[in-house]
Each structure stands twice: as C-alpha cells, then as structure tokens.
Write a structure and sequence with these properties.
This protein is an alpha/beta fold. It contains ten helices and eight strands. Strands 7-5-6-4-1-2-3-8 form an eight-stranded mixed sheet, sandwiched between helices.
Length: 315
C-alpha cells in the first residue's frame, strides 16, 4: 500500500494561545511521518475556526503564510464543536485517503497518530482513540462519565467507552458521513453504527497547554442529553412504562386509603386529594418535557437549515 494522503482536522474556538505550540508539534509530527514514508508529501493540517472571538483566525492565516501545509477554514459564527468537525470533513472529502480529527489543545496525544495510521494500513476504516485511564479527572467528572456511558449502553446506543472525537476515518467513511443530514449531530454515536471495520488505540490524555476548556458542566450535560435523544427512543418508552407502573401503584393506594375509611380513622379528603395532585402533576410535567425535547429535535430537522456556513478558506 502506498503512503496515504492524510488530513488532520482541528476544530478551534478561542484557541489563539494554544495554536503556536500546536502548530510546532504537528509540523514536527507531519514532517517525520512524511520522511519515513508513513504519509504522502501532500498531507496537510486543516484548522477550522468555529466563530472564535479572539485572534484565532489571524493566527491561522499567519501559519498558512509561513507554511502551506497549514490550511484554514473560517465559519461565519459559532456552530458548535460537532458541526466544526463536520465542516472539516466536508472540506477534505474526496481529497485525502484518510483524515484524523483531534482537538486543538492537543490533550489527545498526537504521538498516537502514527499507531492510528498503522491500523489504517492494516485494514481499519475507522480507528478510535480511547483514553487509557481517567486518573487526571476529578471525582465528579469520573463518576458522571461512567454513568453516562452505562446509561447509553442501557438505552441501546452504540458507543465506544471513553472515546471522544479523536479518530481516524478512511476516504470511504468520510464520504459516507457527509451523506448524513441530521442537524442534531452526535458524531460519537454515528460512527459505531456505520458498520465499517474498526480498531482502537489507547493513549494517556494530557493536560491542556493553554486556554480554558470549551466544555464546562452545562455544555457537557447538554451534549450528553443530545447523545441520548438523538439515538434512542427509550425516554419516550419510559413514559409508557411509568404510566403502567403508576396505574398499578394507584390500585394499591386505593386499597390502602380505603381501609382507614372503614375504620373511620382517616382525615376526610386530605390524602386522596393532595397526594395524587402532586404526584401526577410532577409526572405530567416530566413527560411533557421529554416529549417536547423530541418535538424540538423534529422542529430543527424539518427546517433543514445549514449546519455550518463557511466565511473564508485558506487552501
């Protein structure tokens, strides 16, 4: 197999402080891989500026002027991490033999890329970068991550445990992923269901070199909920199961409430009025919220708005 043309896709949002270090590290890596014949000489690095509010795009433009291997894609506004990744895939579709997505902070170890390429040359169409441990995470993040993956498994959502968005994709996989039209995008769930031959490489996640995390708790919770509701109808089925369970409990409670009435010890009307109102009122609000979430997703899908808009491109 001849040396494949590789594209590294890096979504960037307010990463001006990290890009100087990132560009040096990736330039050294790409030059080494080219010199050893692992990748073709026309391989490149694509930075996707996801509507940054700092000087990220200026830094990308400067890197492009200094080294043609660095290319840039500027989105017109902040479309989100998943859509920025998708924009990069569309930009390299049909132009490369494989592509690797990796975050601009390089917490995902770029040294693993060489192993990914070997797996690709051995026949894997998708190579997942998976964290070898979560020792550096806080106790709260570690517990919530485990709960999330177990919840996905319980809801029959295919996913790769401890895999984020550090992955290699073949030319065919990129072409197929560009055919997906859904607006509510959760790439970590899409790739496992595609069915292509895949493999896994493990790495130790590093500390962020500069800047701040782009996934605070609020965004992480929202992202997790998108992952569940985009790939599973279990929450809707759960409403039916809860309704059936409540029906059984209601019969038991009616018997329990009727016994004191026979003994003339009950306070007339209190339990039979207040408790059902509180219980069923709360349950109805939860049920409507879940149904509303799915209706909202349908609303976004049927409008078919573009998932990203490209403002500028450095090629």
């Amino acid at each position: 197999m001849s040396a494949p043309t590789l594209a590294l896709i890096l979504p960037c949002y307010n990463e001006q402080d990290a890009l100087s270090h990132t560009s040096v590290a990736l330039n050294e890596l790409m030059q080494r891989l080219m010199q050893t014949g692992r990748i073709a000489a026309d391989s490149f690095v694509l930075f996707v500026d996801d509507g940054s509010r700092d000087k990220t795009w200026s830094v990308i433009a400067e890197l492009h002027q200094q080294n043609g291997m660095f290319r840039g894609l500027k989105l017109s506004t902040n479309f989100g991490h998943q859509n920025a990744l998708l924009a990069g895939m569309h930009a390299v579709n049909g132009k490369v033999d494989c592509a690797i997505t990796i975050d601009a902070d390089l917490q995902d170890d770029p040294a693993t890329i060489e192993e990914m390429i070997e797996e690709f040359r051995n026949g894997s169409a998708i190579v997942y970068g998976v964290r070898s441990s979560r020792d550096k995470d806080s106790f709260f993040k570690k517990i919530t991550a485990r709960f999330f993956y177990r919840l996905l498994k319980f809801m029959k959502v295919k996913t790769v445990y401890d895999h984020a968005d550090f992955r290699l994709m073949s030319r065919q996989v990129i072409s197929e992923i560009c055919r997906f039209k859904e607006v509510n995008l959760y790439l970590r769930g899409i790739f496992p269901l595609m069915g292509f031959p895949s493999s896994t490489v493990y790495y130790e996640r590093k500390e962020r070199i500069a800047g701040t995390t782009k996934y605070p708790l609020r965004k992480m919770m929202s992202f997790a909920w998108d992952g569940i509701t985009s790939f599973s109808t279990f929450p809707l089925r759960l409403i039916f199961l809860l309704g059936f369970l409540i029906f059984i409990i209601s019969i038991v409670l009616m018997v329990w409430a009727f016994i004191p009435v026979l003994d003339q010890k009950a306070v007339p009307g209190w339990a039979s009025t207040v408790l059902p109102i509180l219980f069923f009122g709360g349950l109805q609000m939860i049920s409507l919220g879940i149904i509303g979430e799915y209706l909202g997703k349908i609303y976004h899908e049927v409008k078919e708005r573009p998932r990203f808009i490209i403002e500028k491109e450095l090629n």
